[in-house]
Amino acid sequence: MRLSKTDIYAFKVLGYLGTQPLERFVGSEELGQATGVPHTYLMRILAALVGHHLVVSKKGQGGGYALPRPPQEINLRDVIRAVDGPIAPLACVSLNWPKACLEEKRCHARSTVWLKVRDAVLQSLGQVSVADLAADFQQGVDYSECLDHLLPSSELLTRRTKTPRQ
After folding, report:
1. Which of 29, 32, 109, 161 is the most buried (most CB within 10 A)?
2. What phi and psi, each to the nearest 5 degrees, are found at residue 129?
3. pTM
4. What's the pLDDT score for residue 98?
5. Which residues of 146-156 are buried (b: 16+ CB within 10 A; e: fewer)?
């Protein structure tokens, strides 16, 4: 599993919302200012989170966005699924977006590696909540540094083909 810029931005937004009282709706302008998430990303992330019932929205005067339940009840597994889709490394081991494979029954790698990777990642992400993101936000950790550490697949391929530095 590899994190995306969208994941990091979603963590920032949810971290901020997690610091707010549940009944307080926060406008998109305030969310953008508090988190530094660009408006276009912010609106896309909020739409995905609302669509997956991880955030609620209210229109009109006093409207905005809020968490629908306490932050400790919303885990990162559900957040990543909402903004990025499947967490499983392959469709043949995906719980929510499965795709059968002709080699499934005799594939040793599937049973010894990919199912275990999927389960370990899902378990770990399920143990981290928006309350943890809110605690980071309150301490001034905003995950901006993470954006400089994302690993795009194209960069990984070019690094492998370069000769080692001496």
Report:
1. 32
2. -120, 170
3. 0.86
4. 87
5. eeeeeeeeeee
